[in-house]
Amino acid sequence: MPLRDELNGYLRLPRNFFGIPPPESGDPDVGVLGIPYDLTSSHTPGARFGPDAIRAATDSERSHSYPLTISGTGSVLIDSLASLLTLEDIGDLELGVQLPESVLVHISEAITKLARRSSRLLLLGGDHFITYPVMKGLKRGREGTYGLVYFDSHADFYEDMGGLTLSHASTLKRIVEKDIVSFENIIAFDLRTATPEQVKELGSSICVNDVNEFKKEIKRIATNVDYIYISVDLDVLQPQIAPGVSHPESGGLSMEELTFLIRTTFETGKVRYADIVELNPLLDRTNLTATAARDIVKEILTGFAYYK
Is 13 a member of any domain? Predict the structure, then answer.
């Protein structure tokens, strides 16, 4: 008899996301995969520990699977997510300290395999570089036209960073350059530290900072694409909400604003994939950023539950 069985009833349950159960058979409604890689970070390393920090935040004693109700903007759902979804925590990719060129292949091949399954996917970074190989793998594994909603304080549109063309500072540039998502199917919200040259190159239809303009553009994109990918860099939030990020910037969104924009995106019915990146637990001494990430996870899972 295994020792764990001897203590059945005495031990805490295995960690899971808000107690959402796995399926009894077949593919889960949602698969969660950690991508603990931050070798391309140009500022403070540590985002590789992000996936575990998010997992820990979702199964604390104060976490439950009922949708968020922030500032009176309650979800349309009144049932718990645990009663509406099945979820599998797939685990973390084994990436170590591979060079970006190698990791690009590793991540994209893994995602290609998952994209062929029926499950929606939530990816946990890692720095923002991971979005490029993830979308590369999705494009190869599930054919179709993709849209991208990119929440970030930075444009990530540098040709290179310190001579490296594979960097968290070049993610959006590579996604466009490699024809994974076309210009007209991207919204990049906030980008408050983008250079004037980057704003000009991206154009006003991509660089959106007005909620009404966002609503108009996301509806337009939804008519053009088969799938929408949401990418949330936690530094899009105000630094007092999310201090534990590798490259914080003054200003930013409130949680109310971000969750509203995520909900608006899900209302298109086209969101199939999402990621949350740049949580750096080494800088998150009060766990405020992990808490924010937890609530973003819940908002994304709520979207997956309602818009199956």
Answer: no
